[in-house]
Amino acid sequence: MTTNKKVLDFIEQSKTLCQPDEIVWIDGSEEQLDALRAQAVKEKVLIKLNQEKLPGCYLHRTTVNDVARVEGRTFICSKNKDDSAPINNWMETSKAFELLNGLFKGVMKGRTMYVIPYSMGAVGSKFSKIGIELTDSIYVVLNMAIMTRVGKKVMDALGDGDFVKGLHSYAELSEEKRYICHFPEENTIMSINSNYGGNVLLGKKCFALRIASYLGKTEGWMAEHMLILGIENPKGEIKYVAAAFPSACGKTNLAMLIPPEIYKKKGYKVWCVGDDIAWIRVGEDGRLWAVNPENGFFGVAPGTNMKSNPNALLSTMKNTIFTNVVENLDDETVWWEGLDKNPPKNALDWKGNPWNGDMKDADGKPIKGAHPNSRFTAPAINCPCLSDKFEAPDGVPLSAIIFGGRRAKTAPLVYQSKGWDNGVFVGSIMASETTAAATGAVGVVRRDPMAMRPFVGYNMGDYFRHWIEMGKKIKNKPEIFNVNWFRTDDEGNFIWPGFGDNLRVLEWIINRCEGKVDAVETPIGYVPHAEDINIEGLNGVTKETIEDLLSIDVENWKKETEGIESFYKELGERVPEELYAELDALKKNLNK
Ligand code: GTP
Ligand code: SPV
Ligand code: MN
Prior knowledge:
The chain is of the alpha+beta class and 592 residues long. The protein is 29% helix and 23% strand.
């Protein structure tokens, strides 16, 4: 398929190392993918679902020890420790290659090595980047064919150019020998002993965030863990925003939201450009322009339903791979917690054990059928509100950047920063409760700057520095905001209704960008006047509720500044002094 010597060398070296029986090039044709799907069913990697109800849809179950990203076994390898530590796990480049080469030795004996040429971004766009993933996993091939653009057209676009090398083997799926290693200085990714999403679909977090953030720092652009959406007002004008929330904190939901009735009636529409990753550059007009490098959605299944996110659910109705959800044996469809109130009577849970919705544990709590981090892999083209700018080579211009996390207290529903550097500060101090998207404890508050803690491919202080420097290059800067949909009352219930109603907050954000609405200055930034958040048609939400959601607890924030300071110290001496100046200013404001 190619005469590119670098590609041929990479394949030859990997063949010598992994010793596969066979090598198969993925050409991207439907015939080949069809044959692979049939083979996956035969090998019991996929289960074919009801083709009348869910055409082209399949179910996959991972092994029980392989259900999420493994941050503890994810490494950024560089020659110097300080170039990736202290937040990232670091391995010295040559030591890491030695270790990984040992693990990959002969690992594909008796297996096929698939060669997946893939493009992050529209094929041939000057902002797109190409990778080649070599894998022994047919599940990876079929998921990559949804999540990225794959095949011959990508090789043609590559010509004799450069690409990101990715080598993956599910090997023995051993937890102890699981490594997800990135070599930004060598444009290389090696992943072994997992077969789960973010660990193995190397175009996604590994390339489009970890390697790309490093490339962005070097080349003057940004790779961010952000959704991109367009908000169309009744006049037909569309404003675009990008929003960074940590894993399983609402990006897919916000990216596809359905406007509340009263907004729909007025003529508001929302268009999805991306739900997870944004590559952002400064355009010739001095604004920031964002593209979504992906071609599909790897979305959280639980909680997705016709009320919370109909567009996501509709996106999964055809040509979708479900991972670790419930298999309904009566009609070969799928189910997960929060889909509807009718769990199947005769089903298998995500582990493949008999299950029905009436099962309770020793404490009388329902036993979950789907894994909390169960996912769907759906083609973007299925999304009813996909933006017509989805393939636009230059992307879309950003009016606002929004940060947000899962905070039961502290962070108000929304606030606006005071300019770029202050906005970078707001992003850098993000904190959020951990979720099931990564293995480990759930619900623990941790600092997650710009929602990138697990995804920056280099030193976090340098990453902050890159944000500050980018600000100097943007003539027409977007406004920067912070949101929190997850504030709870004393009983632990979410106060804000969220989902589609988040548009009410986005409306205030856009109005602020256009200078159409006043705000209240507080020690942390500008918050809305309660009456400027439209609550028309919202049951049970009053002006007092909004006041409560917008309130700022000064004592709590004083404690927060201590947490920020110790986090900055932990990051080391590369944290920009501009951010320490912002921290000082915040402390002074809080003591006024
Ligand atoms: P990743 O794919 O891991 O990056 O996650 P994500 O950021 O795209 O999160 P997603 O939209 O899939 O939401 C994750 C969980 O948060 C789901 O269980 C949703 O039901 C819940 N969620 C999303 N938006 C809201 C909201 O506005 N309010 C509340 N209370 N929950 C929400
Ligand atoms: C996330 O965890 O942020 C995801 C899912 O989007 S994964 O692809 O597994 O990283
Ligand atoms: Mn994500």
